[in-house]
Amino acid sequence: MSHPHPELSAPAPLEKGALRVIPLGGLGEVGRNMTVFEYDDRLLIVDCGVLFPEDHHPGVDLILPDFAAIRDRLDKVEALVLTHGHEDHIGATPYLLRERGDIPLVGSELTLALLGSKLREHRLKETVHHVVREGDRISFGPFELEFVAVNHSIPDALAVVIRTGAGLVLHTGDFKMDQLPLDGRITDLRAFARLGEEGVDLFLTDSTNAEVPGFTTSEQNIGPVLDRVFHQSKQRLIVACFASHVHRVQQVLDAAVAHGRKVAYVGRSMVRNMQIAHDLGYLTVPPGVLVDAKDLAELPPERQVLVSTGSQGEPLSALSRIAQRNHHFVHIEEGDTVILASSLIPGNENAVYRVINGLARWGANVVHKGNALVHVSGHASAGELLYCYNIVKPRNVLPVHGEIRHMRANAELAKATGVPADRVVIAEDGVVVDLVDGVAKIAGKVECGYVFVDGSSIGDISEASMKDRRILGEEGFISVILVVDSVTGKVSGGPEIHARGFAEDDSTFDAIRQPIIDAIDQAIADGVDDSYQLQQTVRRVVGRWVNKTHRRRPMIIPVVVEA
Amino acid sequence: MSHPHPELSAPAPLEKGALRVIPLGGLGEVGRNMTVFEYDDRLLIVDCGVLFPEDHHPGVDLILPDFAAIRDRLDKVEALVLTHGHEDHIGATPYLLRERGDIPLVGSELTLALLGSKLREHRLKETVHHVVREGDRISFGPFELEFVAVNHSIPDALAVVIRTGAGLVLHTGDFKMDQLPLDGRITDLRAFARLGEEGVDLFLTDSTNAEVPGFTTSEQNIGPVLDRVFHQSKQRLIVACFASHVHRVQQVLDAAVAHGRKVAYVGRSMVRNMQIAHDLGYLTVPPGVLVDAKDLAELPPERQVLVSTGSQGEPLSALSRIAQRNHHFVHIEEGDTVILASSLIPGNENAVYRVINGLARWGANVVHKGNALVHVSGHASAGELLYCYNIVKPRNVLPVHGEIRHMRANAELAKATGVPADRVVIAEDGVVVDLVDGVAKIAGKVECGYVFVDGSSIGDISEASMKDRRILGEEGFISVILVVDSVTGKVSGGPEIHARGFAEDDSTFDAIRQPIIDAIDQAIADGVDDSYQLQQTVRRVVGRWVNKTHRRRPMIIPVVVEA
């Protein structure tokens, strides 16, 4: 099994007749999926998603794939294929289109509709769309594409086949193999089998659940659980789930009808996405069940169902505000029931449990995946992946979509079905894999950093800023300001000492004022007249003092101002 | 069911003959367990633990119970009972003893031995110890105590019975009901039954796992899994677990012997605790299996087992350093096996997965509770709690040890066994419960905040500092420094603008320098000569600009220095 090595250098130019795979996101993390394929000096991109930041990237809104490796070749991009409509697959598209607006966008009807509403929000209008469906074949330059139905936690997901002179690539996108999905649209294993018989030279497979033994439970199994909770509930019901989970919402609508309740959507993305899904026929809304949130509030509690965003504990979401009794019209009461029909994304636990505890404090009954089967994953577990490998019998495997632990587990599954270990390639973001003469091999490494979106800035915030934020957030800072007379070159004011996140009381610093003045006087007496050196003197004196007296390491910011 | 209400006021003085329960920690959170019992103007404390901070309390080392409510009555404390030796039950004891050093300490042999080593670290020596064991009875003032064996994830844990004129209280401490524990010391349900027949007026029960259906798996079931992993492993084995989990380490030692391997402890607390457990006979070390870490390194990899701390992803722990190939003598290699034989405490997921991914990156095989039965909980699940309630048949119930969601789930279990709803009291930290004439009722609320330990300071860091840290950590800061001539009262220097965690480039601020000067000139022309008002002017100008141009909200720190 090939491993990424830190010592990898830039890849050599691609051999004639070979295919290059350049992962720019999603390999080594769950999110910002983006893979570039290069053949005959032309490029094809599969997915362009965002990564939601965790604790290591405080204050950041979004993390984008790094376009640097293809920035000077964007004119060579034949198309961007979107496998499905989740944010981690489509969310960075507006940022790519800002760099080249006329890249043809290829995807299923629902995927492109969800993307379209996002592009409108970003005021991007003049885009080129190609709606495709399972079975369709379409070529872009040297890339002959074919699409295969896959089942996922959003309707209308597609795997993509890429045929070039270098061979056949099958990229699953995100998928699972629910054998009784709500819409009857199963992952097309007959197509996988046919492609396998033709010969799959490189198989890119979703690793997210490769560590999970067995099989992902069917979405259908949630229905009876919802039914039981609805049956037991005597008051208002609130169901939180992802705003794109059309089938989950479908089951809530059906349960509401069965129990004589009405439903209102809460949260902008929920309202918007369900409207799109309904308009396109992916969501069946029984007549009369859906009402406006304000009209719902007029009904008695036992007839109300709210379908809400905020299942990950997002602090500004409707559900968080409800948990704090801070929502403008939903007032949670003892005996209300809240269902978190959602996953718990690692890193969000504290936020989600804060919401659950908030709801429980008011006496609400909270049902969540920890105490009832109200969520199933959207990804194939180990058992399903084994089926895939045995049906496809790929010649080379590149696990995608996951942290390194997921990709390794996926690689082990491939090997267990007989794929030779040297044909299973583990590559992280930026590690380039070439398919040459039917063999996949690591060819080098391209630049691939984190690109942070923070407020209106894109890519201006660096890892150094992140590190500063982490120090400031853990330790606070102490700033020490000295004024130096620009004529005499002597200290004429200060030290003014300010601290935040460090201690409450400015008198804390009385003890260090004189030592700072003494140190500066000494430095000046020693002939130091450079303000950088004076600042370093201050930093040293204050740093030693604070470490000795407080056993802490706040950021120390000495400022010497001339006046 | 009684609920805490925000409008609760201070409780009236305690009625003659009544018992008061004052929870100072652990009710509403998992950690810093501490409950004070008051009878006839005398106090008894059960446990005095620490809480480990999560994301809402950045940079804090520890959180203590708030002693404020009893600070002026510490002379009335008859004893501090420690139910077992975990940090969340004993960890704050040194801080309490700093306030009154001669409080008698009561606990089992192992508990007091672990506490003793902690007190020595804090240089507290002259303490009063009473070693007790199951079945013992001992009185402190009006409190007649009896101890009952309970099973937990550390040996020698005790439940405590408190008899006063107000009735009989049974406090489980942390416990579960493993029916086949490694040391054969089961939770003594015969004693629970006998106490129930006598009549338990108030039952305080561990809520931690009340949301978990069914029964906690026996510790014994881990043995065969370890055996299989040891059997499959052809190289070095590293097992990480809690440093107090004597029985988990026992099973690792036994597996090592069975597979011809030697064991070394890594991590200061692991070495220290296992020495104590061994000295007191709680850990059986087969002859010759234990070696020094340096001697272990001399053996071939297939004969090495390291038992390490760091199972929660603590960044400075041995395991984290191993995962970064940054440890001074353990160099992780492809094919090594790492077992995380530990829980995953909510909030630690990112840190733990970073360690797992780090290990996987070097090719290690990582076994953890997500993919194998290498951990069982130390707490009674719902099924066990039902047994308890049915055996004890308590007259009043106060769920303890848990977040509000856990306490509510525990309350529901009590009610399901027939405890009347109005005899199940939900109280959070500081909410005082009185047992009067055999009925438990909320009596009011005492002060009970978070007390932060940060470096060498205890309680100096306030919630305001925490809020500052959260803002600094998410957004960074911009400081703007102006010098005002103390003679003329005019601006004579600046604005100097510095930012950290905000943007890389100081030229970002060129656009705002002149507007600041203009605004200050205008303010001075308008007669403003107060430096606070000038600072507010700067704050307003910079705040508006940064929000408009960057869509962010960094902390803005205007400083006006006189020189």
TrEMBL record, chains A, B:
GO terms for cellular component: cytoplasm. Its cofactor is Ca(2+); Zn(2+). Zn(2+) binds at residues 84, 86, 88-89, 152, 174, 401. It comes from the Bacteria. The active site is at residues 206, 379. Its EC number is 3.1.-.-. It is an enzyme of class 3 (hydrolase). Substrate binds at residues 243-245, 375-379. Residues 31-226 form the Metallo-beta-lactamase domain. Keywords: Calcium, Cytoplasm, Endonuclease, Exonuclease, Hydrolase, Metal-binding, Nuclease, RNA-binding, rRNA processing, Zinc. GO terms for molecular function: 5'-3' RNA exonuclease activity; RNA binding; RNA endonuclease activity; zinc ion binding. This is Ribonuclease J.
